[in-house]
Amino acid sequence: xxxxxxxxxxxxxxxxxxxxxxxxxxxxxxxxxxxxxxxxxxxxxxxxxxxxxxxxxxxxxxxxxxxxxxxxxxxxxxxxxxxxxxxxxxxxxxxxxxxxxxxxxxxxxxxxxxxxxxxxxxxxxxxxxxxxxxxxxxxxxxxxxxxxxxxxxxxxxxxxxxxxxxxxxxxxxxxxxxxxxxxxxxxxxxxxxxxxxxxxxxxxxxxxxxxxxxxxxxxxxxxxxxxxxxxxxxxxxxxxxxxxxxxxxxxxxxxxxxxxxxxxxxxxxxxxxxxxxxxxxxxxxxxxxxxxxxxxxxxxxxxxxxxxxxxxxxxxxxxxxxxxxxxxxxxxxxxxxxxxxxxxxxxxxxx
Length: 351
Prior knowledge:
Layout: E1 2-3, E2 7-9, E3 14-22, E4 27-29, E5 36-37, E6 43-45, E7 54-55, H1 57-60, E8 77-79, E9 86-88, H2 94-98, E10 101-106, H3 124-131, E11 136-142, H4 144-147, H5 164-175, E12 180-184, H6 200-206, E13 210-214, H7 225-242, E14 247-251, H8 267-281, E15 286-289, H9 291-302, H10 317-330, H11 339-345
Parallel strand pairs: 1-7, 11-12, 11-13, 13-14, 14-15
Antiparallel strand pairs: 2-6, 3-4, 3-10, 5-6, 8-9
């Protein structure tokens, strides 16, 4: 995404570019006219007259008189910019329309989600069940990210990519020979407290073999890292009460907009650190999917605005794939390229 600059960064140095386009609109951008790049660089530039959108400071931080505040229909802003003011926000795909997807061959790839943590000794029962024919019960608890927000498939706009939870569901179902019983009980706006109150009895009835806990984004502003861990330990205790053999995967949340007071930089790192420390001393039934670690590396390479779906606290389609890849890498399987991915990748772009 070209934000305040006619230069944008990619994750890896480029050998060749096959296509620059916008999956949300189907528009293919033209080399030389809409973009330029130097072989071996990880940057792409936007020349004068380019059709690729350019994001100004006034768009990122709209003045009060031009704001329609969420949750009003047609909203374009939320208050709470650090230092005062507003942040560009969208519940639909306005960010996606301003982002370009670059299909390229890299000179080299020096970072993958699987590099983050070695966990081949974790979740041994789940790994065995996944390859067997017994029924396999998986329950996901989380917030709006896990419910699917700002994935194009969730908001029903092109290119219709499923959210990370559905990508994982399909990947596991494709591998498991038996019946996979999947429950996504994530709820928009919820914190880790929600899993212990409103939906406690619902998810306990699932008797999961694997319980995925994916909270954090809605907890950063309101609780300490120590409180966050205590709630997770209570969730794990409740899970063991209904299935002593249950195994747990804790998803360490992405960071939000560093210029928004509800996702101030640093709180995500505190939460991540305390969960990592717990994981190091926990037994083989506890695994972590360190999305935060990968997310921060992606932000370092590409910037926040190449990853965001709503401008503050949701991933875009690429970000949902990051989530899915990190979670699946824990159990050493790759993101499934089956029915759903074929359906959205087969959309023919237009020039």
